[in-house]
């Protein structure tokens, strides 16, 4: 097994361990201090939202241009130092902008809780630490090392956040202590990544080789970074804005409920994230050979696999949610987020059903369309959130995300059909939906015991048997055709 396969396997194991830790925290720890987890998630979401203005689009340029700079004997011409210089410049400009806009920001949050107002000052240093974390992780991947950065970044946070909440519940930390603990954790992650990089490749800490930076190379790097900056802004507006807007418009408690519901709904698209990493190089290679038949076949096949998995997962979560709430401490938190989970789950389902549409567009000559589509999603999401959150609170935020994501995927599916005459659906897609409906009917109307745990087990069995009665042949065929 080569280094790429070993690192990929190890990273997958770390990510799934993170999912298990996150699930335990979401079910048993976070509901004990909803406002506090809302505070931490609001700070992370807000800091992430301004991330493109800190790194100035360099994250996309790291992988694109490092091969040109790669020269171990020359310290890679100081490429890493140039990266830090760009981040430092972006952060300085952002601090200046924040200082100029401080009166407007204070007025905007004047009617919010004192805790929320006091916490805003920590967003800027947190944004710098998160920017350094992401950039270091991406830079280290140039040396085919992804496991340690994944452990330091993803797994550390998965363990740290519930630990902070437990310390708060036992009176060790107060609200301000939670924020300082979060900053200290990110500082530790950044220092650990720097130490790991130094041990991996000491030459990366060389000074910039200004003679290597020709005007043409600088212009290409600036153009590519600008495109990356715009793409990052659009992506964050599309996929991160809801948590920020819930915190800004509804408060920290609502943010806590929303983020708990968001994690539960997010488990539905885990198969998509795994499948995309596998299919992306296949799609890229097929476009290089103009093999549209292979892409079209993969488009349909992945759609069926993901739709089959997604409808089953969403159904089992939704059907058992009330009984699950009866079993868990602070179960009322899950009931408050019940319809958020349903709406966000349906939104994720549209992503699964249209499967690899991102890869198909990204690796084609029309790759810029994805940038326009993401900006459309971001703008739609903002406008819908501004309209629906004041009316329906966190359910409004979920509805806004669902509508925007449905329109986003519809737009890309129509574009792919018009340009390439490909679409992801077959008659088998309708069979999956019919099997789901049959499973819902069985789980909803067949007799159940009064005990919630027994009801969950029997209801899940009813659904699985009914769903499999129509879906097993399709699942078996997909399994036989997996290669």
Question: What would you note in describing this structure?
Answer:
- With 483 residues, the protein is an all-alpha fold.
- The protein has 2 domains: 1-221, no CATH class; 240-483, no CATH class.
- The protein has 21 helices and no strands.
- It has helices at 3-29, 34-49, 51-55, 58-69, 79-108, 114-119, 123-141, 147-169, 175-200, 215-239, 241-250, 252-266, 270-288, 292-319, 321-327, 331-336, 338-353, 357-362, 368-420, 427-445, 452-480.
- The longest helix has 53 residues, at 368-420.
- The relative contact order is 0.10.
- The model is unreliable at 1-5 (pLDDT under 50).
SSE blueprint and pairings:
Layout lengths: L2 H27 L4 H16 L1 H5 L2 H12 L9 H30 L5 H6 L3 H19 L5 H23 L5 H26 L14 H25 L1 H10 L1 H15 L3 H19 L3 H28 L1 H7 L3 H6 L1 H16 L3 H6 L5 H53 L6 H19 L6 H29 L3
Helix pairs in contact: 1-8, 2-7, 2-11, 2-12, 4-5, 4-7, 4-10, 5-7, 7-9, 8-9, 10-19, 11-12, 11-19, 12-17, 13-14, 14-17, 14-20, 14-21, 15-21, 17-19, 20-21
């Amino acid at each position: 097994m080569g280094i790429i396969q070993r690192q990929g396997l190890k990273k997958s194991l770390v990510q799934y361990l993170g999912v298990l830790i996150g699930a335990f925290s979401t079910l048993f720890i976070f509901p004990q201090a909803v406002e506090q987890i809302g505070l931490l998630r609001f700070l992370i979401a807000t800091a992430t939202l301004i991330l493109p203005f800190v790194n100035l689009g360099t994250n996309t340029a790291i992988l694109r241009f490092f091969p040109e700079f790669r020269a171990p004997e020359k310290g890679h011409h100081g490429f890493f130092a140039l990266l830090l210089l760009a981040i430092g410049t972006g952060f300085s400009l952002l601090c200046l902008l924040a200082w100029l806009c401080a009166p407007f920001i204070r007025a905007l949050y004047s009617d919010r809780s004192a805790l929320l107002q006091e916490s805003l000052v920590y967003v800027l240093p947190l944004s710098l630490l998160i920017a350094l974390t992401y950039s270091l992780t991406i830079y280290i991947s140039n040396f085919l090392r992804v496991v340690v950065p994944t452990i330091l970044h993803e797994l550390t946070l998965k363990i740290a956040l519930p630990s902070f909440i437990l310390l708060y519940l036992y009176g060790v930390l107060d609200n301000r202590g939670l924020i300082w603990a979060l900053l200290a954790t990110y500082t530790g992650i950044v220092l650990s990544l720097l130490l790991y990089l130094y041990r991996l490749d000491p030459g990366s800490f060389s000074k910039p080789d200004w003679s290597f930076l020709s005007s043409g190379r600088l212009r290409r790097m600036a153009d590519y970074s600008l495109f990356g900056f715009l793409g990052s802004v659009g992506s964050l507006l599309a996929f991160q804005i809801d948590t920020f807007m819930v915190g800004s418009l509804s408060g920290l408690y609502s943010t806590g409920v929303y983020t708990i519901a968001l994690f539960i709904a997010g488990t539905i698209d885990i198969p998509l994230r795994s499948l995309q990493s596998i299919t992306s190089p296949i799609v890229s290679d097929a476009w290089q050979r103009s093999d549209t038949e292979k892409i079209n076949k993969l488009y349909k096949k992945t759609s069926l696999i993901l739709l089959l998995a997604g409808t089953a997962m969403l159904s089992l979560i939704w059907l058992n949610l009330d009984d699950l709430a009866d079993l868990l401490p602070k179960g009322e938190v899950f009931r408050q987020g019940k319809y958020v989970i349903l709406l966000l789950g349906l939104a994720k389902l549209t992503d699964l059903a249209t499967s690899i549409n991102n890869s198909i567009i990204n690796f084609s000559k029309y790759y810029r369309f994805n940038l326009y589509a993401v900006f459309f999603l971001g703008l739609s999401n903002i406008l819908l959130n501004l309209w629906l959150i004041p009316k329906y609170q966190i359910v409004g935020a979920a509805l806004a995300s669902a509508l925007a994501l449905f329109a986003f995927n519809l737009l890309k599916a129509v574009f792919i059909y018009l340009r390439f005459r490909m679409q992801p659906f077959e008659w088998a897609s309708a069979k999956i939906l019919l099997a789901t409906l049959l499973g819902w009917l069985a789980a909803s109307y067949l007799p159940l015991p009064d005990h919630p745990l027994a009801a969950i087990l029997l209801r899940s069995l009813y659904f699985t048997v009914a769903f499999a009665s129509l879906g097993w042949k399709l699942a078996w065929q997909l399994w036989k055709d997996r290669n």
